[in-house]
Amino acid sequence: MSQHTLINPEIVRKNLSKLNISDMNKASIREVVQVVDMIEEETGEKFVRMEMGVPGLPASKIGIDAEIEALNKGMASLYPNINGIPELKTEAARFVKNFINIEVKPENCVPATGSMQGTYALFQVASCCDETKDSALFIDPGFPVQKQQFMMIGSKFESFDVYNFRGEKLREKLESYFSKGNIHSIIYSNPNNPTWVCLTNEELKIIAELADKYDVIVMEDLAYFGMDFRKGILKPGVPPFQASVANYTDNFVLFISASKIFSYAGQRISVVVMSEKLYNRNYPNLEKRFQMKGFGNTVIYRALYALSSGVTHSVQFGMAAMLKAANEGIFDFVGEVSEYGEKAHIMKKLFTTNGFKILYDKDIDQEIADGFYFTLSYPGMKAGELLMEMMSYGISAITLLSTGSKQEGLRACVAPVNRNQFADLEQRLKQFHIDHPVVKE
Q: Is 437 exposed, middle or buried (0-12, 13-18, 19+ CB in 10 A)?
């Protein structure tokens, strides 16, 4: 072990032991957060923290001001309508039209207390639609907590790493799962957490075609809406638009969260957008568990209602105001978060200059975008070992294996890293590279 580490490796091991973490590949995001907190408190050394996908920008003032106004009008004393306030539903439908170019009705746009609550509710309902279909399919890597949600509701899921199945290869891989007849829904994020892979329109068409063929519900997590900065989504109603499976099938549910695109994570709000066809579809099997057949009504009046009895009243006004400002072209929400892409470009260069490799580096034949996340590997080191070593240099991340990836590497989030930390990061990476020389083949 190098004598040049910033933090004594024994301190790292001791704190991992306190949390009963023996394998870094199995450590959750929140566990990594806690152990880094403990090490920082014990040593006084500040980490370059890349483990948690938290916004690194101020929350939108448009939303804050709208919430304050709503509170001053007395909304805190009133239960919100479980369907969502009319202003939010209207602006959500406009937003989908302006930035995805898809027509949806306001009634099919429903707020949830963050996309995590939205997915939890949808997973509950989708798992009961057809008694012959008992499993969901995840296109991995993905957000680990979504699989935890399936564990909580006691439902089955399958998954595969998309790394080797891009383009037309995706069709054969999906068909191998769908053709078994047990898949009720497919879940993925685009842009992808954790790899920043962006599915192409051709790949989205493949997903849509097979979902229609096998009657599978497509759940598309758009937490990082518009953040494929290569495309430059700038103006409402003007292409290019956010890529979405909704362009190719009526069998979709979209999750649009305020957390990242509006830097509004602390207020916990998202909008669940269901196609009109799916919203109005009756599934007789739902009645066995929910005493209701309609998909949309079951989501709202059985699942979401039971989970929280509505989304916080004031934050719905905040979300409505932000969506309205974006729809009217006075809030450039993509420009507001472009800082993530700029930081990623710089940080990736710091890593690759010092022996690291970008693991998921291509969208088929195009270099991957710079964005909220990127992936790392280091020659000769497995993921858990690499993360342990980096923590001794005051750098934290999470392993890709914890996200469903089959690749030995790490996910790095650029948002929590301030530009004034770049010099420290560069110095620590240089020392890491010196202490772990790469043997050229």
A: exposed
Residues 37, 39: Cα–Cα separation, whole Å: 6
Burial class (CB in 10 A: 0-12, 13-18, 19+), 45: exposed
CA distance 281 to 311: 25
Q: What is the dihedral of CA 314, 317, 321, 322, to 10 degrees?
A: 60
Taking the complete model, does pTM exceed 0.90, yes or no? yes
Please write the tens of the pLDDT for every residue from 338-391: 999 999 999 999 999 999 999 999 999 899 999 999 999 999 999 999 999 999
Of 312, 333, 354, the one marking the end of a domain is: 333
Which domain does 31 fall in, by range? 9-46+338-435
φ and ψ of 163, to 5 deg: -45, -45
> Domain holding 124: CATH number?
3.40.640.10
How many angstroms separate the most distant Cα atoms in the chain?
Answer: 69
Domain contains 55: no
Do 113 and 231 sit in the same domain of this protein? yes
Phi then psi for 310, rounded to 5 degrees?
110, 160
**277 and 388, same domain (yes or no):** no
Q: Are residues 134 and 186 in the same domain?
A: yes
Examine residue 2 and state whether it is found in any structural domain, yes or no. no
Q: Is 53 a domain residue?
A: no
